[in-house]
Design brief:
This protein is α+β, with helices and mostly antiparallel strands. It is built from 7 helices and 21 strands. It has a 19-stranded mixed sheet that branches. It has a two-stranded antiparallel ribbon with strand order 14-15. α2 crosses α6. It starts with 6 loop residues before the first strand and ends with a strand.
Amino acid sequence: MTAFVAQRPIRALYMRGGTSKGVFFLPEDLPADQNARDAVLQRVMGSPDPYDKQIDGMGGASSSTSKVVIVGRSARPDCDVDYWFGQVAVTAPLVDWSGNCGNLTSAVGPFAIHRGLIEAPADGVATVRIWQANIQKRIIAHVPMRGGQVQELGDFELDGVTFPAAEIRIEFLDPGADDGESGAMFPTGNVVDTMQVPGVGEVVATLINAGNPTIFVHAAAMDLHGVELQPDVNGNAGLLQRFEAIRAHSAVVMGLAETAAYATEKRQHTPKIAFVGKPAPYTSSSGKAVAANDMDVAVRILSMGKLHHAMTGTGAVAIAAAAAIPGTVVADVLGGARTGIRFGHPSGVLAVGAEAQEGDDGWVVTKVTMSRSARRLMEGTVWVPEDIG
């Protein structure tokens, strides 16, 4: 006879932020031990699941919907809250804390207000100063308020999200990451590198730390155009293997992993890899026609080994940063550096801006701005077996 195991409740808030969804927690509601915490979070999401569905959990069986967030009060004088992001692998026993989720960043300010972590004005805009603990960076969120509540509904439309909502402006301050051995925005010291990737050959890429560590390659070099949708890429096992070989090799070059094998097995969330092409017309994943003149450049990004259905928020940060600096793959496709661009992604078009300046030590991006939206989906408790964690 199977021994009886009870379940225990854990307070949580299920939120959409940008084009992602995740389960949000306060630190005190989770185990203090990291291994126990990760075991609980995997079980909450329904991972690892060899069926690749996360049926027995809150996850949605994609990189965009298998995410967890922890937010607590900050001890830093320049920040209101500390924010940790975990990417939960669907089929593997892994919670990857190596990077940020720019989309869910937009829900951090609202969550902090919902949980009473900060004081917010009854009406107007609440400015929430966020410390992104994964990448050790400051982010400012401007959250609209009305009648003492976060204004969640509105007329701001975000491609990749079905319904309009209230706009939340996000500022990523000094987004050039300190990750890796060099601590530089360009860890190799170059805005573009030519690498010999085992099993692939010569690859020209921009390796940049901005938002998250990101690799940009030319779409044409992958026999692509830059306007592909998920079915065009995710069903091509050989293409995905080439992307992963480049990503894993670049992780070593960037000082993020000792070996390519480690990057593939243990560091799946970052670095991200994206491919860039010239503006071209396409039909978005929702069936909407996107014209070439709607965008300045076409970009697609892979997340957890698959083409993302829209664009990661940190990918947008990296695009904006790379676009503002001459000589990068993004700037090359644009025909020159730009401080504000519109880029096409599988779900539509997004506008981003960056402030960049060249100093004695090279280029520095001081700010990247974009708009997102967020909404509470469900509030209450999640349940996990008592013997987990």
